[in-house]
Amino acid sequence: MIDTTCSFCGRKSSEIKKIISSPSGKVFICDRCIKVCNDLMLESITAEDKPKDLVLPTPAEIKRKLDDFIIGQDDAKRVLSVAVYNHYKRVNFNLNRAKQLSIKDAQKNADDDIELEKSNILMIGPTGSGKTLLARTLAKILDVPFAVADATTLTEAGYVGEDVENILLKLLQNADFDVKKAERGIIYIDEIDKISKKGENRSITRDVSGEGVQQALLKIIESTVASVPPQGGRKHPNQECIQINTSNILFICGGAFIGLEKIVQTRIGGGSLGFGASLKNNITENAEVSDIKKVSPVDLVKFGLIPEFVGRIPIIVGLNALDQKALIKILKEPKNSLLGQYRKMFAMDEIAFEIDEDAISATADMALQLKTGARGLRTILEDTMLGVMFDAPSDKSISKIVITRDCIEKKSPPKIEHKRKAEKAEKPA
Predict the structure, then answer these.
(1) pLDDT confidence of 203, banded at 50, 70, 90?
(2) H-helix or E-strand containing 263?
(3) pTM (predicted TM-score)
(4) Nearest one of 135, 163, 169 to 151, comparing CA atoms
């Protein structure tokens, strides 16, 4: 028998267990070299597959960036900045720890037994106070995938409605089906107060859209490996599902929690507790949660959230209702201000857009009456400018649109300047 030699390591066939030849019979490789090549390939694939550390701004930097897009809510922005920073610092820590433990020769030190747990966030505030915008802006600042879900559309598994796993599908879709990227994203669950139990006593019939949903959310909010159907809808045994680990996904829940202040007042023993104006028998939707520190987990359980769910959202953030000054600033100051959006939109048709200070004040006053927070501003302006937005694209002679207080109050239509009139005004007399 001919004693062949490995073309890579030079060992002879008598020194090794197995040797393989190429189709031409001129090149040979032994089992040892095959194992070395296989290990190198696995290390290369694993290194590419592992997500890199997130570039994480400090809490102060996060707060400054939030200030560029969101007016007011300074206390809430401070709490959120710290909470989000700590969450993604934990993600980076756990990632680096996993890398260190994957090295065979690494010595395990005392810190290896420490696992940082995730702290999800609950935002309490009236409608239109900026809960969704805060969560969306945080995801934009950190450059992570973001998804919004409405808790009122969710039902317990097996009932008509949407499964809780479909929340993860939305995040996966926004991450272009990159599972590793989605596993570090942010999910905002709105109207979480609407899935509170219908009463403190257990009902004979199942509360499939209340307590049942809370029970279904428990696992994915904490940490689990969830099976997500890629096409959405109900899962069935023959359907291939995508496995998503939720341990590094940050869940932010939000709701108005109307009536919570009355529960807190009852527990404390009467008297005003700083939820805006003095408390009365009827709780209004625009009541402020300015002293969120007085809200305890007991109050949330009394409101209708189950204790297990409350325990998984330890960070509570309170948002105040927006006053007239805040609404005026929202119209004018943020980088993505509403008036800036209209200016840009009209500029696409080569039309200048102008709104005077009285009109801005009138818009803020009317938005306060609507009691829908910042959302009311767009409603009022859209209604005011419907006519000109309909006519402007087809009338190329329009050069400028001016909005006054009378326009907002429906006393007169918006003022329209035409290019011909503008040219005549520019000529010397």
Answers:
(1) very low
(2) helix 260-268
(3) 0.74
(4) 163
